[in-house]
Amino acid sequence: MSVMIDIIPDGGVTSPLGFSAGATYAGIKKQSRDALDLSILFSEIPCVTAGAFTTNKIKAAPVILDKQKLDKTGHAQAVVINSGCANACTGELGMTAATATADLAAKLLGVASDMVMVASTGVIGVQLPLDKVQTGLANIHLSSQGGSDLTRAIMTTDTRPKKIAVTVKTSGTIFTIGGTCKGAGMIHPDMATMLCFLTTDALVECDFLKATLDDAIAASFNMISVDGDTSTNDTVLLMANGLAGNEAISSGSHLAAAFKQALNKVCLFLAKCIARDGEGATRLIEVVVNGAKNLKDARLIVRTITSSPLVKTAVHGCDPNWGRIIAAAGRSGAELVSEKTHVYIGEMCLMKNGLPLAFDKKAASSELNKEEVVLRVELNIGGDSATGWGCDLSEEYVLINSEYTT
Amino acid sequence: MSVMIDIIPDGGVTSPLGFSAGATYAGIKKQSRDALDLSILFSEIPCVTAGAFTTNKIKAAPVILDKQKLDKTGHAQAVVINSGCANACTGELGMTAATATADLAAKLLGVASDMVMVASTGVIGVQLPLDKVQTGLANIHLSSQGGSDLTRAIMTTDTRPKKIAVTVKTSGTIFTIGGTCKGAGMIHPDMATMLCFLTTDALVECDFLKATLDDAIAASFNMISVDGDTSTNDTVLLMANGLAGNEAISSGSHLAAAFKQALNKVCLFLAKCIARDGEGATRLIEVVVNGAKNLKDARLIVRTITSSPLVKTAVHGCDPNWGRIIAAAGRSGAELVSEKTHVYIGEMCLMKNGLPLAFDKKAASSELNKEEVVLRVELNIGGDSATGWGCDLSEEYVLINSEYTT
Q1: Assigned CATH for B4-276
Q2: Residue range A4-272 in CATH 3.60.70.12
């Protein structure tokens, strides 16, 4: 079956049929009046919804609440998102605020409270100002053009909005997937929160939606590293309202592969946006590992390399110090055999079978000066591969993250 | 039994009876003529010797060689150490160079080759210049005052020499433990190598020596973090020549506790020297975790906090952003219950039972401006504790590690 996946110019979460969004400045962020800090994503009808949440043992109130609701119903119709306050380490009062936020929005939107998810990003240990949320919610105007406002409203230290939408065309069917995310740029007082909201008008069976989302996240958001800190608030929500009128997609159905492919594309695009926009980052680093014993090992090595401060600073300084790459691979815990391993910067092989090769240092340095730097390790001990993304570590990162608050 | 442990002023590896050392500039480091880069540590008689080596799967040639020799004999009489070249990722040629270095030294010293250990630190992927090593070895003059020269000769980016010696007096017995180390300051082209050489004139039974060393390392060198990168060359060697004439110390003997205590003290002192001298570091960070379910969990949380870039930059900026501390604890993988957890900066409690406390931000900021910063997490779910050390992350770290080499 032929599948066409096309990017919609300026598309986002409101590109799929039946979704609307809006945002306002509620005064939660301590910023100028034109900053947006509260937003709503809404679907005309309830959506089959899949979620993925932080693995941090300290979970913010909205994460706890969303998990409870999703476990109960597997559906959602709206999400309320605030920036400027993480509502984490806020105890019972924080849970009350998260619950009340959903309840208030549910009332305004005319849907059941269980159908409203919440998400927060910002300072830890500060209570959510419920009065401001209440006033703010009433000010939000929902529109099918509101996706861009929502994208802006969830940004904290992001320097660029991050959004995409694709249409998927197969014989007789067309559906759309949209998405937006924020993070993981971190600046005091924010945490490394990654929030991502995905929408589709495809009709998708519940279990398949969750499994497909998990797979897409494993290969995208879980393969990026800015500084290794996992937030208390990380959340990905995928809402499918079925308004495209397609036959329900499940693991056996003929549209399964197309849906997977399109969702992977959307997640990968958004994940790379985050890595590229890492705090103080000047370059995107793509790390490829081939020939691993298994996928777990391949991903482990990728993640160890993308999060190594020595690798990140070497890339920043355009220093082809490949010893740092192989040393990171070696300490990752994954299987490797030095005598079989090759290391590449771009297409230049610097280490072959565990031994250094003579190379043109100037050319290797130029390779590291590109906007997208590719580092590759060939293990030659198995058939599994993985790719991940990170960014260089600059003085700017330290400056941003050590800013005085007192 | 009363035990007195006293620090010997300006003591080091040659403080215990029967040890001598010397160093020279062999031209391995690309530095000025007065830099030392090759040294020998020697004992008059063979020593019961315990070693601990890097867990990196990529192991430098000297690490492989030392392990082979120690497994075979459990004894050593000398160590040859070079800086400026790691002899890692150097294949068979590298193994030949390491073996030849030991053989050359053995001949000069009049001992068996098996009795000579080797250790290297410096650039990865560069062959050890054996001719320079040969000439250098012949130039080394051994003396019982040579400990300081050895300490200088193993330094790479260290800004301070790191050495200590203690005498241990109990009724009727006196013995000495000395030690020196280098690392984990890293600058291109060096790796994060930690080398440590420990000497004692106590007579110690082999298995007890190894077990005591492993315990001491677990609570000291394994509890420091500068940037999380583990080198291909990390080595700790402990040589015991028995010249103090004490009754052999084994796990049951009356001197066992005193020996343990003294060795722990030496290792802890040296480990803290390394953390304090981390590249670009301006402050030592001590992280204490109490009330953990078990020791493994306590250490896991300590290590996650000491290696968190967000915590390290917050300390650098004197920013009492305690959310970063609890978030790091939460993502460590260790058991914790938010509602039972307290977080302290110095003696100031900022989070109690998972909830933020009002606190004097100026005072907390001053606490973080001290030369030694103490961060503490009270878990209140068990009886185990751990302490570890790290340093702040400064712009200087990035500058040092992104230096051009081309």
Answers
A1: 3.60.70.12
A2: yes
Instruction: Quote the tokens at residue B34.
Output: 């007065």
Q: How far is A331 from chain B (nearest CA, A)?
A: 4
Active-site annotation holds for A193? yes
- Is B313 within 8 Å of B368 (Cβ atoms)? no
A354-366 burial: b if 16+ Cβ within 10 Å, else e: bbbeeeeeeebbb
Pair B239, B150: CB distance under 8 Å: no
| Residue numbers of B annotated as active site | 193
Backbone angles phi, psi at B402, to 5 degrees: -110, 15
- Whether A355 has its CB under 8 Å from any CB of chain B: the answer is yes
CA distance B264 to B270: 10
- Spatial CB neighbours of B84, under 8 Å, sequence gap ≥ 6: B28, B29, B30, B31, B37, B121, B122, B123, B156
Task: Pick A284-401's CATH classification: 3.10.20.340, 3.40.50.300, 3.40.190.170, 2.60.40.10.
Answer: 3.10.20.340
In this predicted complex, what is the ipTM? 0.78
Are the C-beta atoms of residues A203 and A242 closer than 8 Å to each other?
yes
Q: What is the pLDDT of residue B396?
A: 79
- Give the model confidence (pLDDT) of B133-168 as tens digits: 999 999 999 999 999 999 999 988 788 899 999 999
* Nearest CA-CA partner of B279 in B122, B389, B156, B157: B157
User: Which of 101-120 (B) contact A at CB < 8 A?
Assistant: none
**Phi, psi angles (nearest 5°) of residue A246:** -75, 165
Q: Where are the domains of chain A?
A: 4-272, 284-401
Q: What is the pLDDT of residues A36-60, one digit of tens each?
A: 999 999 999 999 999 999 888 889 9
